[in-house]
Amino acid sequence: MKIEGTHQLQAPRQRVYDCLTDPQVLQRCIPGCERLEKTGENAYSATIRAGVGTIKGVFTGTVKLEDMRPPEHYRIVVEGKGTPGFMKGTGDLDLEAEGEATIIKYTGDLQVGGTIASVGQRMIQGTAKMMASQFFLALEAEAKTAVGEPPPSHGFFRTALRWFSGLLRKLFSPH
Amino acid sequence: MATKYVGQRVKRTEDPRLIKGLAHYVDDIRLPDTLHVSFVRSVYAHARINSIDTTEALKAPGVVAVYTGKDIAEKIGPVPCASALPGLKVPDYRVLAQDKVYFVGHPIAAVVATNAYAARDAVDLVMVDYDDLPVVVDVEAAAKGGPVIYENFGDNIAYKLTAGEGDIEAALGSADRVLKQRIVHQRLAPIAMEGRGVLARYFPGEGELTLWSSTQIPHLMRTQVALMIGIGENKLRVITPEVGGGFGSKLNVYAEEALLGWISMQLNKPVKWIETRRENIQATIHGRGQVGYIEIGCKKDGTLTGLRYNVFADLGAYHQLLTPAIPTLTGLMLSGAYKIPAIQINVTACFTNKVATDAYRGAGRPEATYVVERALDLVAAELGIDAAEVRRRNFPAPNEFPFHTATGLDYDSGDYETALNNAQALIGYSKLREEQKKARDEGRLIGIGISTYVEICALGPSQAMPAGGWESATVRIEPTGKVTVLTGASPHGQGQETSFAQIAADELGVDLNDVTVIHGDTGIVQYGIGTFGSRATAVGGTAVLIAIQKLKEKAQKIAAHMLKCEASNLAFEGGRYSVQAAQAAAATGTSEPVVPVGEAPAGALPEPQTEGKSSLTIQDIALAAHLAKELPPDTEPGLSATYFFEPKNFTFPFGTHICAVEIDRDTGDLKFLRYVAVDDCGKVINPMLVDGQLHGGIVQSLGQALFEEVVYDEQGQLVTGTLMDYAVPKASQVPWLELDRTETPSPVNPLGVKGVGEAGTIGATPAIVGAIVDALAPFGVKHLDMPVKPEAIWRIVNA
Q1: Closest-CA residue of chain A to B282
Q2: What average pLDDT is seen over chain A?
Q3: Cα–Cα distance for residue pair B797/B799, rounded to 1 Å
Q4: Is it true that the peptide bond before B787 is cis, omega within 30 degrees of 0?
Q5: pLDDT of residue A50
Q6: What is the pLDDT of residue B599?
Q7: Which backbone phi and psi does B772 adopt, to 5 degrees?
Q8: Does B43 sit within 8 Å of A113, measured CB to CB?
Q9: Do B719 and A115 lie within an 8 Å CB cutoff?
Q10: Which residues of B touch A (CB under 8 A)?
Q11: A113 with B719: Cβ contact below 8 A
Q12: Minimum-distance CB partner of A118 among B44, B278, B715
């Protein structure tokens, strides 16, 4: 299944790119990510708690970053399996500078199997979009935090607040 | 035979227990110390299994054992396939996956625990390491090449078959018009209300295994499971308690049935597995699954010259019991209700990475009927002849029966035109056409669809069947006069406890309440074939009738002996043998039974009183036969008879379904204006049961026409895995069904019955789709594939 979208982050492109390739930042930003360990050059093993609707579980797998062209592009390749089934996906991220802000365009191809496919199929697209949105909002907060500062918190309340302020920004933006 | 019950709307004797919740399905049978099984099933459509780690699962609370493919490889034989077609490729499909999995839901491991929840939880702890392999989903792609599922077979084609009579090239060549159409018969899930379920109990002392299973074929299953797990067939007892629907999905021998039996033998404890709905949609057989290409030739006046059907049959990843046979039934019925001089079917049956297809209510015949009826509609539209008229012009006349078709069948009896005429009269056809014309002028979209179907039922002569086509019955009259009927047909909702009792009560002249019909227990009932293919009444009911006739021959001898007269001087009427004098004959019907049932004195059995009597009830004779004090010489005591009825031909029920629909231009939604069905299933034993069969069948047909479709994505993942996504019709979506009948007795059996279990699913889809296509004719629509969803209609209307 194809997943695509665009997010605008209020942070400079290089900073966003650095965050996107920092495993510690990624671990904090990926919803449900409990572990992200480096296993090689741009390769990680990960544990993510995720689910669709009532089908929830823990996925373990690998994350690889490929085709890296800082600060404008990279591809992320994810493979994971767990009790709700398996997932396999690739995503291309393109970063464009727009003044002080960065626009991220992502297109991905996601394959899921097992219970999550047979039960949650109709909700996967929505869930993936929601997770992407959570991820980018958290990423924006990270990118806006200066290097060396303590990282921002990504609890439920913070995420909700960010989502709401993002919504307001979207609604009232001149474009 | 006097017909006090046959032909009457007798209420189902099964219903009170079902309505009150007193019936026993497999899951209602609770044995002490029962262990529960849950399955690890493949999440991939095609993958190699590198390893299976059961360590954590075995440590989980309540878990007793975990079995994988390795454990059973040498112990349990392959899942049986009964179809033997020339050149058929048969994969070695085991009850648990060996080194590869072939479809989503393929069983990999069985977890056994002290309760069902513990077993299910531990399933998640079994770690299977897979390497996914390329997947084959589309049947036409499978035929052309691409990834090969079974490397040893070289390709994905399980078999190819060409059948039919007549010179098809000449027939199409001589036609004024040849019309072509691609037709999709989507995969359907049978969705029996009760899923499958198995309870197995091994008695180590006796060396006997009992299997309770929700199946349509207890005896065939006993034979096959005995062979699979290597137990004597006479040490295996299969009991089918209440079965909550089958629709063909339980006309099978499944991996779980053999495996549960074997596990019980390993652990010496009862083990149970109750299928979940998700498993039901994933791992119980699907139906249909054909993509075909029609070529139909006709003359300018609508006379058909020939029909060719090139079909790709989606068999799924392996064969269940009858998987390869289903497309052959399609081939047999391609003549429909019409005289078509030349017919040819070319089947290319392919393996795909999906669960196997097999018999689903209609089993190959709905596909054929749909093809033929859609073809007739194409001819009607092309030539501008009314859809009813073009059908009428191609019917064989009633005096042309037995009617030989170019598919090699001999239709037993039929009067197709009367059924069509009656249906047209019932719906007010010509007036409806006028209304349609008027509505079109007003911009409203009304369509009328017609299906004049024929089906093949009462399966069937053993020559044409994979495992015997006969059916058995034993009829006993017990010492107290109660009648016990044992039938080899194993009903699962059809109401044969009622209809067979009607046959027996009339034939024996006893009260319906004195008859009990017993079925579905191989420990009690003589070998039988089962209930499927609309066969139970035509074959199994006939066996009951003839067993009774045999029993009565003996009863008459005993009666003559007791009444001290010649057997030939006795007549049987109203349940009573009486001396055949004019006076006695006149008196029958008014006399009381000698020993009325239920009024026999308690304690010792009463002596039959014959002194001074000129007549005896059959129940008096039964008592005498058991006391055996006054029997004619060389007569065996007891009063029972067994008969195995072998039919000489199939039966061919038929009918006309007409429906009228109106389409909402704004939403593409569909409203049924009328639905009329005139069906002919030969003689009717119980009109209420026949109506019920038609209601259910038409609704399932409507489901196929409008809603239902099993969808796998391009990776072979089952997308319609729950009833949220697989859309069976709801009550509110079903129109009022106006049913009527004609009655053309079948000469194939003495009851004159034909069968009706599948008529609805066979007759209705073409009528419904035909009506939609007719409604959309102003948009140039000639055909639409099922399920015809509002979206597709909306896109046409709003293009």
Answers
A1: A118
A2: 86
A3: 6
A4: yes
A5: 83
A6: 47
A7: -65, -45
A8: yes
A9: no
A10: 43-45, 104, 124, 278, 281-282, 713, 715, 717-719, 721-722, 724-725
A11: no
A12: B278
Looking at residue B465, its pLDDT comes to: 87
User: How far is the C-alpha of B209 from the C-alpha of B234, rounded, in Å?
Assistant: 10
Give every CB contact of residue B120 below 8 A, 6+ residues apart in sequence: B38, B111
CA–CA separation, B475 and B640 (whole Å): 5
Report yes or no: A86 at the B interface, CB cutoff 8 Å.
Answer: yes
Residue with tokens 């000639």: B782
B208 membership: H or E segment, kind and range: strand B208-213
Q: Which residues in chain B land under pLDDT 70?
A: 1-2, 580-612
Interchain CB distance below 8 Å, A118 and B715:
no
Report the alpha-carbon distance of residue B438 to residue B436 in Å, rounded: 5
Residue A93 has pLDDT above 80, yes or no: yes
Once rounded to an integer, what is the mean pLDDT over residues A22-41?
A: 90
Q: Which amino acid is at B422?
A: N
CA distance B652 to B575: 33
Sequence length of chain A is: 175
Give the closest-approach CA distance of A124 to chain B in angstroms.
11
Element spanning B155, H or E: none
pLDDT, tens only, B236-292:
999 999 999 999 999 999 999 999 999 999 999 999 999 999 999 999 999 999 999
**Closest Cα in chain B, distance from residue A111 (Å):** 8
Could B721 and A111 be called an inter-chain contact, meaning their C-beta atoms sit closer than 8 Å? no
Does any CB of chain B come closer than 8 Å to the CB of residue A114? yes
The number of beta carbons lying within 10 Å of the beta carbon of residue B137 is: 19
**Among B44, B715, B718, beta carbon nearest to A118:** B718
pLDDT (tens digit, 9 = 90+) per residue, A134-154? 889 899 999 888 777 888 877
CB atoms B104 and A86 under 8 Å: no
Please state, in angstroms and rounded to a whole number, the distance separating the CA atoms of residues B429 and B417: 14
The CB-side HSE value for A62 (13 A sphere, CA atoms) comes to 9
Question: B722 vs A118: CB contact, 8 Å cut-off?
Answer: yes
> Smallest CA–CA separation between A174 and chain B, in Å?
35
So what's the pLDDT on residue B2?
62
Which is nearest to B688 in space by CA: B509, B453, B495? B495
B326 touches B363 (CB < 8 A): yes
**B289 touches B139 (CB < 8 A):** yes
In angstroms, the separation between the Cα of residue B794 and the nearest Cα of chain A is: 22
Query: Residue written as tokens 């989502």?
Result: A163
Give the chain A residue whose CA is nearest to the CA of B106: A114
Alpha carbon distances (Å) from B690 to B363, B364, B396, B763: 19, 22, 26, 14
pLDDT tens digits for B560-572? 999 999 998 999 9
Contacts of A166 by beta carbon, 8 Å cutoff, 6+ apart: A137
- Predicted TM-score (pTM) of the model is 0.92
A61 at the B interface (CB within 8 A)?
no
| Beta-carbon contacts of residue B210 (< 8 Å; ≥ 6 apart) | B200, B201, B203, B236, B237, B238, B239, B523
Q: Which residues contact B689 (CB under 8 A, 6 or more apart)?
A: B12, B494, B495, B498, B499
Which of the residues A118, A119, A122 would you substitute to probe the B interface, choosing the one with the greatest number of B C-beta atoms within 10 Å? A118
What is the per-residue pLDDT for B664?
A: 97
**Per-residue pLDDT tens for A110-138?**
888 888 887 766 778 788 888 888 889 89
Tokens linked to B74: 């040498």
In this complex, do A118 and B282 lie within 8 Å of one another by their Cβ atoms? Answer: yes
**pLDDT (mean) for A9-14:** 92
Element (H, E) at B623: helix B618-627
Q: What is the pLDDT of residue A162?
A: 74
The Cα B128–Cα B106 span in angstroms is 13
- Measure in Å the smallest separation between the Cα of B149 and chain A Cα atoms: 19
Q: What is the pLDDT of residue B594?
A: 42
